[in-house]
Design goal:
Distance between the termini of chain B: 126 Å
Shape of chain B: extended
Number of strands of chain B: 17
CATH topology of the largest domain in chain A: H-NOX domain
CATH class of the largest domain in chain A: Alpha Beta
Strand content of chain A: 15-25%
Number of helices of chain A: 7
Bound molecules: protoporphyrin IX containing FE
Structural class of chain A: alpha+beta
CATH class of the largest domain in chain B: Alpha Beta
Order of helices and strands of chain A: HHHHHHEEHEE
Helix content of chain B: 55-70%
Structural class of chain B: alpha/beta
CATH superfamily of the largest domain in chain B: Histidine kinase-like ATPase, C-terminal domain
Number of strands of chain A: 4
Number of domains of chain B: 5
Distance between the termini of chain A: 39 Å
Shape of chain A: globular
CATH superfamily of the largest domain in chain A: H-NOX domain
Radius of gyration of chain A: 17 Å
Radius of gyration of chain B: 44 Å
CATH architecture of the largest domain in chain A: Alpha-Beta Complex
Number of domains of chain A: 2
Strand order of the largest sheet of chain A: 1-2-4-3
Strand content of chain B: 15-25%
Number of helices of chain B: 22
Oligomer: heterodimer
Helix content of chain A: 40-55%
CATH architecture of the largest domain in chain B: 2-Layer Sandwich
Chain lengths: 181, 696
C-alpha cells in the first residue's frame, strides 16, 4: 500500500487524538516498518489493518467508523493534491464514475505497485447511481467516507445505502440516490 | 514526557526523510539509466533513418534512370490534363523539347479529329471509380508525322490528395496497321464463308425440289395397277431415287460434318430389311458383270436397331459401291455380326468384302483422305469423286466408330467397323405393328387440312395421298392466301411450305399465330427441302409445331398426321383412357403416375438408362459368393415395379427369399429368370416410351 495512505492516516490520528496516540500506536503495534512512513514509499497492507485495529481498541471507536472518517480525511488531501481530477467534473455522479475509469487508472500508471479497488458503476436516469466496490483489502468504509465527501463537495443532495454483496466485505454495493433539493 | 515524545517524533521524521531520500535517490538513478538508454536508442534511430533515406534516394535515382532510359514512354499528367513530366523516350518520340511538352495540354498533341474523343474518354475515366485504363490515340509529332500511341493510365493521388495520372505508353503504329489488315482479311473470310453456305443451301433446295417430284411420282405410280415386272421396276426406281437423294444429302453432309452442324437423328429400323434393299439395288444395276452380290445378317439379331439410319446407310452404300466399282468378277458381300450384346445395346461388326483389285499396303493409310484415290491410273480407269471413303470415315467417327481396312492387292479388300447401337422393338412385334400401320388409310375422325404449297408437283403428290386416306383438304398456293383463309376457316392442321412467292411460310405462320381465333394454336407442320438446322430453328422460332423434310415418303407424312391429328383436344380424353400397355401392371402405373405422361416418360427413360448396368452387375455378383448379391437384389427390386414390370419384381422377391433360405440353386435360377425377363420385356418398355413421347 502506498505511503500516502499511512502518512495521512497518522496525520489524522495526530489531529484527532494527539501525537501521544500516534506514538502509542507505533510502539505497541508490531510493524516491520517501525512506523517510519514516507509518501513516496510502499508498505505492506497488513500494517494499516494493524494500526486501525489498535486505534479502535485504544479509542473504543469501532474500526469501520474510524475507516470511514479516514476516508473523509483523505478526501481533503486528494482535493488539495490533485485538484485537476475534481475540476474535470460538474457533478458527483460523473466524478465517482471517473474513479475506476480514469483516476485509479492514472494512479496505477504512476505507481505500478499500487493495489487499487475495482468499481462497477451504473447510473439510471440521472437519479440513482449504483457503485459496486470489489477489493480483497475489504476497505469499503474508506470508500464510503470518500463518497460521502465527494457528494458534499459537489453539493449533491444524496442518500447513500450500503449493502454487503459478499459477507466478508470484499464486495459491497453502494446505492446513491439523489434527493429533491 | 512531552520532550521524550517530541524527540521520538523528530527521530521518526528524520528516519522517514532519510528513507524518502534514499528512495528518491534510487528513483533518480533509475531515471538517469532510463534516460541514457533513451539517448542511445535515439541515436540508433537517427542512424537508421539516415541509412534508409540514402537507400531511398538511391533507388529513386535508379528508378528515374530506368524510366528515363526505358524504351516505353512514361509521362505524368495533372488533373487539368497538362503534362507534368515526360521521360526522354517520350520527348524524343514526340519530337518536341521538354519545355514544349511539360505544362502543355495532352490534347494539343492529338489531331483535331480525335480531340473530342480524347476529352470525352478521360472525362468518363475521371468520373468512374476505375483506377486504370487503356486507350489508343493518334499523336501528332513536331515534324507533323502522326503515330498511334497505346497508353496505360493509372490514377494516383499526390500528397495533397489531388488526383494525377501516371502513364506508360508505346508507339503502336505498326501493330495497328497489322491489326487493321487482319480485320479486313477476317471480314473477307467471313463473307466468303457466308456465300459458300448460301450456295450450299440454295443447291440443296434446287436439287431436292425436282427430286421430290420424282420420288413422289414414283410412289404414285406404285399405287396404280401395275404388272409384276412394272412393279419391280418401280421398286427399283423408288429405291434408286432414294439412294440419289441420300447421296445428295451426303455431299451436303460432308460440308455439314466439316462445319460441325450435323446432328445425329436416331431411328428404329430393321437392319436386315435395310441391307436387303441396299444390296438388291445392285442386282439390277450391274447385270453385265460376273459379280455376286451377297449379304448376310446374324440371325441372332432379334431386335430392330436404333441408330442414325441415314448415316449408317450412307456409309454402307459408300463401302458397297466402292467394292462394286473395283470388282470385275467374284463377289461383294456385306455381313453384319453381333460382337457383344447387353440388355439394351448391341455391338455390331459390319464388314464389306470384295474380290476386287485390292489396295497396296502403302496406300492403305491414304485412301481415307479427301479426294484421294489409290493412284492416278485408278482414277482415270474407275472414275468417281474420291469423297466416298472419307465421308464414310468421318460419319463413322461422328457415330463413335472408326473404319478399318485389310487388303491384299489382286485378291480383294475388306472394309469393316464396329458400331454400338441401341436395341429397338423385337422384330416379330415390329412386323405385326407394321402390318397394322400399313397405309390402308387414315382412320381418324373426318378432318380438314390446309395445304400451303406453290410447287404444283408437290401439291399433286400431297393431295393424292390425302385423298387416298380420305382426309379433306384445301390448297392455297402462298402464305397470303393461307392467312386470308385462316381468318374465317378452321382447319385441323396446316402443312406449310417455307419458300413461296408473295408471302413465305415464316411470315404466314407468324401472322396466324397472332390471330385471335383458334388458329393461333393450330398445329403447323413446315415442309422444308432444307436439312439445315438453322431453317428448322427458324421454323420453330416463328411458332411452327414440327417439320417434315422434303422429299418425304407417304409413311413419314402419315406418322406426322397421326401424331398431330390424334392428339387434338377432342381426342385427348380417349387417349388417356387407353393409357399404359396392358402387358404392364397398369394398376400400379395408373396409381403412381395418373395422367402425368411427362413424369412416367421420365421414369421409363431413366429405367432404360440404368437397366443395362444393373443387369451386368447382377450377372457379376451372381458369380461372387458374398453379401453383394443380397444387396443388389434388394436394390433392383423396386426398379421393375416403377415401370410396371411387377412380375419381375416378384421374381426378385423370390430370389431374395431363396437367398435367406440358403437355397443356392433356386437363387441362381431365379436370377437368370430375372435377366431373361428383363430382356424379353424391353420391347414393351420401348413401345411405351414411344407412345408416351407422342403424348408429351
Ligand atoms: C483524486 C482522487 C483519488 C486519488 C488520487 C486516489 C488514489 C488512491 C491511492 C494512491 C490509493 C492507494 C492504493 C495503494 O497504495 O495500493 C487508493 C486506494 C483506494 N481508493 Fe482511491 N483515489 C482517489 C479517489 C477515490 C475515491 C473518490 C474513492 C471512493 C469511492 C476511492 C476509493 C479508494 C479505496 C477504497 C482505496 C483502498 C484500496 C482498496 O480498497 O483496495 N478513491 N486511491
Amino acid at each position: 500500500m502506498k505511503g500516502i495512505v499511512f502518512t495521512e492516516f497518522l496525520d489524522m490520528v495526530e489531529e484527532k487524538f494527539g501525537y501521544a496516540m500516534v506514538d502509542d500506536l507505533i510502539e505497541n503495534s508490531d510493524l516491520s516498518s517501525k512506523g517510519i512512513y514516507t509518501a513516496v514509499g510502499t508498505y505492506h497492507h497488513s500494517e494499516i489493518v494493524t494500526l486501525l485495529t489498535n486505534l479502535s481498541d485504544k479509542s473504543k471507536i469501532d474500526a469501520e467508523t474510524l475507516l470511514k472518517s479516514f476516508g473523509e480525511y483523505l478526501f481533503e488531501t486528494f482535493l488539495k493534491q490533485y485538484p485537476q481530477f475534481f475540476a474535470a467534473h460538474d457533478d458527483a455522479f460523473s466524478f465517482l464514475e471517473s474513479i475506476d475509469s480514469h483516476i485509479h487508472v492514472e494512479v496505477q500508471k504512476l505507481y505500478p505497485e499500487a493495489t487499487l479497488p475495482k468499481f462497477v458503476t451504473h447510473i439510471s436516469e440521472d437519479k440513482v447511481m449504483s457503485m459496486i466496490y470489489q477489493s480483497e483489502r475489504k476497505m469499503a468504509s474508506l470508500a464510503e467516507g470518500l463518497i460521502h465527501k465527494s457528494l458534499l463537495h459537489y453539493n449533491d443532495n444524496c442518500k447513500i445505502e450500503k449493502t454487503l454483496i459478499n459477507e466478508d466485505g470484499s464486495e459491497v454495493k453502494f446505492t446513491i440516490s439523489r434527493l429533491a433539493k | 514526557m512531552e520532550l521524550e515524545l517530541l524527540k521520538k517524533r523528530l527521530e521518526r521524521e528524520r528516519a522517514a526523510r532519510k528513507q524518502a531520500e534514499s528512495i528518491l535517490e534510487q528513483k533518480a538513478a533509475e531515471l538517469y539509466e532510463a534516460n541514457s538508454q533513451l539517448v542511445a536508442l535515439n541515436e540508433n534511430l537517427e542512424e537508421e533513418i539516415k541509412l534508409r533515406s540514402k537507400e531511398l534516394s538511391d533507388s529513386e535515382l535508379r528508378y528515374r534512370r530506368l524510366v528515363e532510359q526505358a524504351s516505353d514512354i512514361f509521362f505524368n499528367i495533372d488533373d487539368t490534363g497538362r503534362f507534368t513530366y515526360m521521360n526522354a523516350t517520350g520527348v524524343h518520340r514526340f519530337g518536341y523539347d521538354n519545355e514544349e511538352i511539360v505544362g502543355h495540354y495532352f490534347s494539343e498533341f492529338v489531331p483535331d479529329s480525335h480531340k473530342k474523343d480524347l476529352i470525352l474518354h478521360y472525362a468518363l475515366f475521371m468520373s468512374s471509380d476505375r483506377i486504370a485504363d487503356y486507350k489508343e490515340f493518334p499523336i501528332k509529332s513536331k515534324t507533323g508525322e502522326v503515330f498511334w500511341m497505346g497508353q496505360n493510365v493509372n490514377r494516383l493521388n499526390d500528397d495533397s490528395s489531388k488526383p494525377y495520372f501516371s502513364a506508360v505508353a508505346r508507339d503502336i503504329s505498326k501493330q495497328k496497321i497489322l491489326k487493321d489488315e487482319l480485320e479486313l482479311a477476317r471480314q473477307a473470310a467471313v463473307k466468303a464463308q457466308k456465300a459458300e453456305k448460301q450456295f450450299l443451301a440454295n443447291m440443296s433446295h434446287e436439287i431436292r425440289t425436282p427430286l421430290n417430284a420424282i420420288i413422289g411420282m414414283s410412289h404414285l405410280i406404285n399405287d396404280t395397277p401395275l404388272s409384276e415386272e412394272q412393279g419391280e421396276y418401280v421398286d427399283i426406281l423408288i429405291s434408286s431415287t432414294g439412294i440419289l437423294k441420300n447421296l445428295i444429302s451426303d455431299i451436303l453432309d460432308m460440308s455439314k460434318i466439316d462445319a460441325g452442324t450435323l446432328v445425329l437423328q436416331e431411328k428404329e429400323f430393321s437392319i436386315e430389311k435395310d441391307i436387303k434393299s441396299l444390296v438388291r439395288s445392285f442386282l439390277h444395276k450391274s447385270k453385265d458383270k460376273a459379280v455376286t452380290y451377297r449379304y448376310e445378317v446374324d440371325p441372332k439379331i432379334k431386335n430392330e436397331i436404333i441408330t442414325d439410319q441415314q448415316l449408317l446407310n450412307q456409309v454402307l452404300l459408300n463401302l458397297y459401291s466402292n467394292g462394286d466399282k473395283f470388282t470385275e468378277s467374284g463377289s461383294v458381300s456385306l455381313t453384319v455380326n453381333i460382337v457383344s450384346e447387353t440388355v439394351t445395346n448391341l455391338n455390331l461388326l459390319f464388314s464389306v468384302e470384295d474380290t476386287g483389285i485390292g489396295i497396296d499396303k502403302k496406300e492403305v493409310t491414304t485412301v481415307f483422305d479427301e479426294f484421294k484415290q489409290a493412284n492416278k491410273e485408278i482414277r482415270s480407269k474407275y472414275g468417281g469423286t474420291g469423297l466416298g471413303l472419307s465421308i464414310s470415315k468421318k460419319l463413322l467417327n461422328l457415330m463413335g466408330s472408326d473404319i478399318k481396312l485389310e487388303s491384299i492387292p489382286g485378291e480383294g479388300s475388306n472394309f469393316y467397323f464396329e458400331l454400338s447401337v441401341k436395341k429397338g422393338r423385337l422384330l416379330e412385334d415390329a412386323k405385326a405393328v407394321d402390318k397394322e400401320a400399313d397405309l390402308t388409310g387414315y382412320q381418324g375422325q373426318s378432318r380438314m387440312i390446309l395445304v400451303v404449297e406453290d410447287n404444283k408437283l408437290n401439291v399433286k403428290y400431297l393431295t393424292r395421298l390425302l385423298e387416298k386416306w380420305s382426309i379433306d383438304f384445301v390448297v392455297k398456293s402462298n402464305g397470303r392466301e393461307a392467312v386470308d383463309f385462316c381468318e374465317d376457316n378452321f382447319p385441323d392442321l396446316i402443312l406449310m411450305d417455307l419458300q413461296m412467292p408473295v408471302m413465305d411460310g415464316f411470315e404466314a405462320t407468324q401472322i396466324i399465330r397472332k390471330m385471335d381465333n383458334a388458329n393461333a394454336y393450330i398445329p403447323i407442320i413446315a415442309l422444308t427441302a432444307s436439312t439445315f438446322l438453322s431453317k428448322k430453328q427458324m421454323a420453330e422460332q416463328v411458332g411452327m409445331t414440327d417439320f417434315l423434310s422434303k422429299p418425304f415418303t407417304p409413311d413419314q407424312l402419315n406418322t406426322k398426321l397421326r401424331i398431330y391429328l390424334e392428339n387434338s383436344p377432342s381426342e385427348v380424353v380417349q387417349l388417356n383412357n387407353s393409357r399404359f400397355s396392358d402387358k404392364l401392371d397398369t394398376g400400379y402405373l395408373q396409381s403412381a403416375y395418373g395422367d402425368d405422361a411427362a413424369y412416367s416418360l421420365e421414369i421409363f427413360e431413366t429405367y432404360m438408362e440404368i437397366i443395362d448396368d444393373e443387369i451386368s452387375t447382377l450377372k457379376q455378383v451372381l458369380m461372387e459368393s458374398d453379401d453383394g448379391l443380397k444387396n443388389h437384389l434388394h436394390k433392383i427390386k423396386p426398379i421393375f415395379t416403377m415401370v410396371g414390370l411387377s412380375h419381375i419384381s416378384e421374381i426378385v422377391k423370390h430370389a431374395e427369399q431363396s437367398y435367406s433360405d440358403k437355397d443356392n440353386e433356386s437363387v441362381t435360377s431365379q436370377c437368370h429368370k430375372v435377366i431373361e425377363e428383363t430382356s424379353a420385356s424391353l420391347p414393351i418398355i420401348l413401345a411405351e416410351i414411344k407412345r408416351l413421347k407422342t403424348i408429351v
